[in-house]
Design a protein that fits this description.
77 residues, alpha/beta, three-stranded parallel β-sheet, 35% helix, globular
């Protein structure tokens, strides 16, 4: 049993997982492809706060996934 189940590991799903586990909820995220969704296949993201020079989609995806996992979210691929 989980408090929160998230379907889809794109930016919104990963962000939801991060907020859920930070709020003390037991969370599992289901993703059929790669963490980051379409963001993962984007060469350059230039409109994301905190990265004035831009960041590659795969790097931002990896950072978001790693943060969710570090906080305790469970991701099932």
């Amino acid at each position: 049993m989980y408090d929160v189940v998230i379907v889809g590991g794109g930016p919104a799903g990963l962000t939801s997982a991060i907020y859920a586990v930070r709020a003390g909820m037991d969370c599992e995220l289901f993703e059929r492809g790669v963490a980051g969704g379409q963001m993962f296949v984007t060469d350059r993201i230039e409109n994301y706060p905190g990265f004035p020079e831009g960041i590659s989609g795969p790097e931002l995806s990896d950072r978001m996934r790693d943060q969710a996992l570090k906080l305790g979210a469970k991701i099932l691929f």
